[in-house]
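sanity check this record:

:::
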Amino acid sequence: TEVTEKLEEVVRIWTKQIRQILVESEQIRREADDVGPSSELEHWKTRMSSFNSLLDEIKSSRVKKIISILQAARSKTLNQWKELDASITIAANEAKDNVRYLYTLDKFFGPLANASPVTMMEHIPSLMNTICMIYCTSPYYNTSERMTSLFLKITNQMINTCRMYLYEG
């Protein structure tokens, strides 16, 4: 029982740390007003990397041994652990899925940032079709909150490109 208590304490510490990571990941992001759409992709890539690392750690042999010992001891701390494990898996899947869908927009980010306003306008119909496809098929990115954020960043990029065109022209 002494070993079990020490292992339960370790799992409680892990649980607290993982909860903190999950809470921080759900907080509203603070970004500059003129940030472009490539920052959205970078955000999800960073989040995917973080959650994949966390999943790798949870699936390590050391953690599995501790969990199996606590399972054999019928520890009650495992209920919380299982919930957190599921939450991490969902967050990792969401980030991976969002990165996959946002990569389909990556080919438009260059023309949005570097083209003249006339050339940029040629890419808008394809961009909108791709965003529509993401909205219709993505299980995670199809919320009004995420779409609004994406459209805001695309608009910011278009404004910045037009502004640079006028200053240079």
